[in-house]
Amino acid sequence: MRHSTFRGGVHPGDRKELSRNKPIQYHVPKGDLVYPLSQHIGKPARPVVKKNDPVLAGQIIAEADGFVSANIISSCSGKVKSIEPRMTSAGVMAQCIVIENDGKFTLKEGIGEKCDYTKLSRSEIVKKVQAAGIVGLGGAGFPTHVKLSPKNPDEIDYIIANGAECEPYITCDDQLMRNRADWVVGGIKVLLHMFPTAKGVVAIEDNKPEALAAMEKAVSGDERISVLPLVTKFPQGGERNLVHAVTGRKMASTDLPANLGCIVDNVTTLTAIYRAVCLNEPLMEKGFTVTGEAVNEPGNFLVKIGTNVQELLEACGGFKQEPKKVLLGGPMMGMAITDLNIPIAKSYNALTCLVEDPVEIAQKQMTPCIRCGRCARVCPIGLVPQQMQVAAERKDYKRYERIHGVDCIACGSCTFACPAKRPLTQLFKVTKSAILAARRREAAK
Amino acid sequence: MGMIIATILVLVVVGLLIGLLLVFADESFAVETDPKAVAVRECLPGNNCGACGHAGCDAMAEAIAKGEAPVNGCPVGGAAVAEQISAVMGVSADAMEKKVAFVKCAGTCGVTKLHSNYVGIESCEAVAGMPGKGIKSCQHGCLGYGSCVKACQFEAIHIEDGVAKVDRSKCVACGKCVEACPQRIIELVPDKSVYAVQCASIEKGPVVKQQCSVGCFGCMLCTRQCEHDAIHVVNNLAKIDYEKCTGCGKCAEKCPAKIIRMR
Fold it and tell me: With an 8 Å Cβ cutoff, are A92 and B123 in contact?
């Protein structure tokens, strides 16, 4: 049988062989841990500790400021060194809480206590998830408690566990599903308890047979949950594409998955939900892949949030050769970084160190657009990047909005497919942020 | 012979008819124009740059003729044009203070530390959205990809060694570059002012020193030198109050980073 998928998409070489069979290791940080106050979509958190305050692992160090915001939890014990601007992944200085790590990782009281989720009500679970500071760990960083409070809770009929991991190079979700399938299934069961009308689907690309088998084994015995293999294609893990592949429902640009009766969560987020609800462990660590041809020993890790990237890289034996480009995330959607001395925030899942910069190579071969339409054929949400490019280059924002350019998810498929090697995705990102900034200005008036 | 006369006759009659039709159309469909607006339009430079805030010179001329815009409202034409227009309108115009654009950054490739390499779209908007904001370690200065150069219709701004530089003789203070700059480091300053702070970094002293050898690190020496209370350090950055500045140059003399410069 043909596996489910969506229309469009591309097939980049996935290079997952570098790290796919490296089992998850615990990484114990030795240096200071740094927590940016803004690691999620929404308002930055508000610090609740002061300089020199002692902290324990699992303690809330910054509180959510409003509903669409998230708590920040200390992942180590020690004392607050300072609250100051530090370099973050965005390449700019941002306010961070720095904690001097005493190396003991003394847990706050009550963490690790087992808890029976079946005795909790829906709102109690949401509160627990909110207190644990869980956000979308697949990359978006959207606060999970907001996702778990849909307007129509009785109409939710699908809980989709996103284990597609379509981004090349990255393998931490694959390893997580192979080794901690019980956590993932535990998370799904918690959500099924919250939304009893739903059924659970674990969606995994068919290039991960071991993860498929492991999940299949873990869900056996519970007929509410099934495992669905998907075609290996980028960007299969995009929310819209996943909902379409699993349910056949088409999401409009204004739709949230909840409007179509779906709750989509990354498998890493589900493990965090399971640990927060059933084990009383707030979000302190997450899966992270260090990979790329430039790294000595690529591997998959469970890292403490706030760990220094440089330190983690040294745990992988450092660089084999000078990298041309270092990306947070994978090569399709990741962002290049200029400084390795930055903390790992909640929503990052990989460090990819490339020995060749594909953008540099493409730039040298760039030619004018030949209007072949390949970009439109691969666009996973059915836009026409060629038209968007013309509008964006003329700064004709009205037309850009009319052809739904703002719906672009910046997956990079058009840039990947373009035979004229045009930097489409970058142009769309710039244009989108210009339009959104103009809208904000308009709204502020 | 008869053929030729007939042809001429037909042509003459058709010509007369069309002429009458045109006269009729001209009279009945005429658009009323204010002769004053036409006269004002004659005086305006005709660049249609939009710097006055109106949709081109025609719209500006109409607004002036209606009294909705000041006679000295054209920044491009300056005092000379304002004088002509005031003659047409029959009012006296105070000469408008001439302004020029000024780039608050001196961080050329040689003096500011470079931290990375950038390949991609060559425009400041694109670079400003990148992590690390381009190749220079300073987050606040000129990116050097020339969005202002593209915006300028008067060829008055150029990139020299990674920093935009304004040609004061060509600049008409239309403000297009000010809008185009994503770093917001171009401002319009009075043409007669002599000194200006050529830095936009609001980082603290040690950070600035690490990033750039010509950055303001907020030492306040300039404030102490000034006898006219015209220079202050706000947010780790010196700022000149052009109304009070007399151009004595004492602050520039003492500035350890030499970034208060004669323009």
Answer: no
